[in-house]
Structures are given as C-alpha cells and as structure tokens.
Design goal:
344 residues; 9 helices; 16% strand; alpha/beta; nine-stranded mixed β-sheet; Spore Coat Polysaccharide Biosynthesis Protein SpsA, Chain A
Length: 344
C-alpha cells in the first residue's frame, strides 16, 4: 500500500505541474488572439465542450442562426481531444471565435474515477476567469455544449444584463425554464409573455439553474472564492441561499437541454417528452420594454406521465465501474506488497 501511495503522490505532482503549464500557455495564446481583434466585447458567450459532437452540432447550428451573434465573441474551451469536436469548432465562421485547449486537472486522470464533475467545474471556472481577467467583459453568458439556444438568446441576455443583473441581490439569470410549454386546453402559451420573468424557486426556496446563465463581473468576484470544483452548479445553488441572493428564469424559454445521453446530468432517453416539448422563443423581440416580474410562480407544470422511456446510462455509470477497477487494483497491490514484506 505504501508503494502505491508513493507512486500516486508522485504522479499527481507531475501531472499537476504539466496541467498548469499547458493551461497557462493556452491562456497566453488566447489573450494574444483577442488583443489582435482590436475591440472589446461586453458579454462574451463562454462554451465548455468535450466529446459529444452530435449535440454540439445542434448547438452550433442554432448559434449560427442567432440574431446579433456576430456582435459578440464565442470563447470555447475544449476538454480532451475529440477530433470531431475539434473540427467543428475550428470551422465556426458566424462570429469571432477563440478556442482554448483546456487540460483537465491532473491531466484528466481523476475524471476516469470520479465522474467528470470536477473537470466540468474546472473548465467553467477557467472560462469565467479568462473572460473577466483577459477580455475586459462586464458580464458573461455560459452556454454548455448540449444546450440549444433560441434565435433571440443573445438579445435576451443583453436585456437581462441591462435590467436585471444590475440588481445587487441577483446572482444570475438563466434562459432555461422546464415549464415553458403550451397548454391548449387552458389557452396558455408562453410566447404570450416574452418579457415576463420569474424568480427561480423550487420547494419554496431560491434556486440556481446552470443551463445557460449570465453573471456579471462583480458577482463573479463575489462567488469565485467559494467555487466548488466537484459540483459547480450544486455549489452555486447552496452559495446563493447562503448569501441571500436570487436568480431569475424566463416564462418563455430561451434554451433547451438536449444532452440526455453520455453526459453527467441525465440518465433519461433523448425523446423524453418532458424535455422535448419545452417551447423556445421563435420570434424576434425588440427588448425595449422593461421586464415584468411575476411575484407568484403561476407557470404550468405538467404532471409526470406514465410510459416515459426507460433511463439510459450516463457518465457516472462508466466512472463507477472505473472506480471499482481502481479499488480492485489497490487491493491486489496491497496483497502483493503484504506478501513480499511479511510472508516470504
């Protein structure tokens, strides 16, 4: 066991040094590329990507159709070296794009055994730090690579930065609302309320939602020191409650999560109607009106229906298996070491 621990500590130290040097080199290159553009961007879109190109393609197709996407910059941080993902992001031509090759903590060794939560948390932190230190941004929009945005997504967030996120009591605004769906029997349609926002609450308490969200530079400075490098969104949710902050969501959704398989968040089938039927804004709005804040959440929540597709495996399932393999290796090495030290 002692031999194993010695080897482990040595590997972690070396991998940590290599990781830091690689990321520092990438940050320097990306900062130089932004300087060459000769302009600043108040609200960059930050996108962490990894290895699910079929979802990423849908997101990039939606971004290409987004109004005013050419008025901002897309900063992409790629974990890993998936060739399909790399090719897709290198071919983006609908807006200025900066691509950073992000090296996961300890060269990604830990992600094989403890899910990808630590890697995702580190990558998002990495992007936010880069945006607020190296680009001069006053706010940033985080859009993961399996979240499809609406056509007015960027304009919506510009509007919320101007009217909502200036409030010192607001941590963030999301573009996601699972209840953004039409109910014909009740003559209800979320498209009738494009300027209505709801305080994001669940079970009577304020809640943070990370499926497309905006945060200001000042708020980032406030929360960055409390960042969770294991479960970033759960960490922000707890921190929001601790600090007495709130978040808002739109009645009319501006983002939909499509990444049901192969990721961390879900063990559900892709065609599950509770995710598929979320309605996204399909029109362009002038955003000259101020937001209307609803004091009571009177949005419609569909009851769970029988017959939903059976859950599938997600990345946690894979890493649990790897964890068991690691445990088996440790036990085997301990037995071998015990044999040579005490039984021979």
């Amino acid at each position: 066991m002692l031999t194993f621990l010695t080897l482990l500590i040595g590997c972690l130290m070396v991998s940590s040094i290599i990781t830091c040097r690689r990321n520092a080199r990438e940050v320097k290159k990306a900062a130089a590329a932004i300087s060459q553009l000769g302009q600043s961007y108040a609200y960059p879109i930050l996108m962490p990507v990894y290895g699910r190109p079929h979802y990423l393609k849908a997101v990039l197709d939606a971004l290409a159709e987004m109004k005013d996407i050419d008025k901002t910059i897309l900063i992409i941080s790629q974990d890993g070296d998936n060739p399909e993902v790399k090719e897709m992001i290198e071919q983006i031509n609908f807006t200025q794009t900066i691509v950073i090759c992000h090296t996961r903590p300890f060269l990604g060794i830990g992600a094989y055994f403890w899910d990808s939560l630590a890697a995702a948390s580190t990558n998002i932190y990495f992007l936010l730090e880069f945006a607020f230190i190296r680009t001069g941004a006053s706010g940033a929009i985080v859009l993961e690579d399996d979240i499809v945005p609406s056509a007015d997504f960027f304009n919506y967030f510009q509007w919320t930065f101007a009217h909502v996120l200036i409030n010192k009591n607001v941590l963030s605004v999301t573009g996601f609302n699972i209840d953004s769906r039409a109910i014909p029997a009740k003559k209800y349609h979320p498209q009738d309320y494009p300027y209505d926002l709801l305080e994001n609450r669940e079970n009577g308490r304020a809640k943070f939602t990370g499926w497309s969200w905006g945060i200001t530079k000042d708020k980032w400075r406030q929360v960055r020191k409390h960042w969770s490098f294991t479960s970033w969104d759960i960490g922000l949710d707890k921190l929001q409650g601790k600090l007495g902050l709130i978040s808002y969501k739109p009645v009319l959704g501006r983002a939909r999560n499509i990444g049901m398989q192969g990721g961390i968040n879900f063990t559900e089938a892709e065609d599950n109607p509770k995710w598929r039927d979320i309605y996204l804004a399909g029109e362009m709005y002038d955003y000259e009106e101020p937001p209307r804040f609803r004091t009571n959440d009177d949005s419609i929540v569909l009851a769970s229906a029988d017959g939903y597709p059976r859950p599938g495996n997600n990345e946690k399932t894979r890493t649990r298996k790897n964890r068991l393999r690691l445990l088996a290796i440790i036990i085997l090495m301990t037995m071998v070491e015990y044999y040579f030290l005490f039984l021979r």
